[in-house]
Amino acid sequence: MIDYTTPGQIAAFIAESIQGVGGTVVFPDGYLKHAYEHARAAGGVCIADEVQTGFGRTGQHFWGFQLQGVIPDIVTLAKGIGNGVPLAAVVTTPQIASVLAKRIHFNTFGGNPVVCAQGKAVLEVIEREKLQANGLKVGNHILAGLERLELKHNLIGDVRGRGLMIGVELVKDRSTKEPAKAECARILELAREMDLLLGKGGLWGQTIRIKPPFCLTLADADFLIEVLDAAFARV
Questions:
Q1: Quick check: 23 and 203 in contact, CB under 8 A?
Q2: Residue 225 host element (H or E)
Q3: Which one-letter DSSP state was computed for residue 65?
């Protein structure tokens, strides 16, 4: 991409540590390490988008980029840090920050002390209530349940994710991997009728996205698996 679509110099490379709306795609081990090396060799800075993967959602680490063993130059944060209020943040190096300070920067919600207090409280609750550890435990429980469903329902082509960031890709045929877009929409509607709200993603809208609150319990996880099992049985 750098060799054939740029003059050889780039501004930046940005990537979610696990692709969210893209269908909960977990990168192969070492992918970001090599991507960062190529980007930096072309003069670019490396940006980790932790809006969906940050704050312990993967269970194993507090930040998704740690799964890949890399250190980005810039990290973008949002949503999870505010727990419902409009709050986002950018973490970067002193060198990059000093350049930004020389330019005009505008942010509608910038410097709001009320939401900053809430963001601080959220971080304290995550630590005090060990929500990252809970995410790993409950997430692994959900993944195990989904893998059992995969053996039972041919519509499931792949189960993947880390912690409480999970994707279930649906296919019409496991050999051709043809996306089951309509079936995915139907599964979500049936789940809604049984009081389970889920999202979807992927290039063709064929992947069920499971990204629940950190306070999810094992009983909640069992309910999720039971509802999905019933929904798949009807499609």
A1: yes
A2: helix 218-234
A3: G
Say whether pLDDT at 39 is over 90. Answer: yes
CATH entry, 2-128, from 1.20.58.100, 3.40.5.10, 3.40.30.10, 3.40.640.10: 3.40.640.10
Contact 81, 118 (CB under 8 A): no
Work out the number of other CB atoms within 10 angstroms of the CB of residue 147.
Answer: 11
Reported as a single tens digit per residue, the pLDDT across 43-91 is 999 999 999 999 999 999 999 999 999 999 999 999 888 998 889 999 9
In CATH, what class is 131-234? alpha beta
Place of tokens 């994710």: 161
Domain ranges (residues) in the chain = 2-128, 131-234
pLDDT class for 101, splitting at 50, 70, 90?
Answer: confident
- Single pTM value for the model: 0.91
